[in-house]
């Protein structure tokens, strides 16, 4: 171990790493727990998106625990302040942590795709885009892990740098940095798309402004995750600095944690409305899978979904005239977006006139009656 000054030796990013990890991981854990409680105890209809988020949370927690152990061993401090054995252990745990972090931000995107399919009931094209983009990110993220652990031959040279003097070969760090940047760019683009699409759909709906803004904010948190992915990409060149990896890669570890937990939070916040209603006393825990929501006197079942596909209103009846359509949407339900259309239908009642010597005929002279039907589109 090289002799260093006390100021240099005291430089330590470990406390900042622990603060970021446990604040964000704690928030994400609470959000995921609340989400699972809502789906399993209140609504009783857990879906694939819930299990994907739960798996993501397991990886995020594992990353936090591993990083905590690594900080205790010296991660966040300068490499030349540690013994060779300690340095090898810290570098090994750091590489394993990167793998966990990559999985932790890749899987939640699949959960967001499943959530949007459940909320918005999109067209087949947009379903294909959702799963295509998120599946692509998951694939390139897995390949990134492979690229990381195959950077050196043998792989042990990643954390035991003494093997380089014995003939171990490593690819130039530019390969890993470039591919990791590509993975981060794909992740950022996917986060942005998953945030913008529901926002565009919601802005087209006729509903109270504050509800529209609240829902756009909840479903659009992926924009924050996109920003975190971009910032993380700016930290990736630090992967190429092997001379002081335990200190220079600390910021990259922090931003990886932020990105993964923000994606998890973004996928959970839109699902927490029923629990808020229970806390405020507007709903009880006896709610069941098909619970009702009342707005403006209309009751819609939870299975009713809003879709961008044309509704099946018949217009081929010559005696039926649709004179006005108003709509109100209530989408603060867990798991569905509902749309209520108020359709005003005007028609004339037939009247029969029978004159002497003439056959009975039917005319459409008479009072005009206006009916209002409330339709729930699916």
TrEMBL record:
Alphabetized UniProt keyword annotations: Membrane, Transmembrane, Transmembrane helix
Cellular compartments annotated: Membrane
Annotated region (Disordered), positions in chain: 347-378
Biased composition (Basic and acidic residues): 347-356
Rhodopsin domain boundaries: 34-277
Family in the record: Belongs to the SAT4 family.
Name of the protein: Rhodopsin domain-containing protein
Organism: Aspergillus ellipticus CBS 707.79
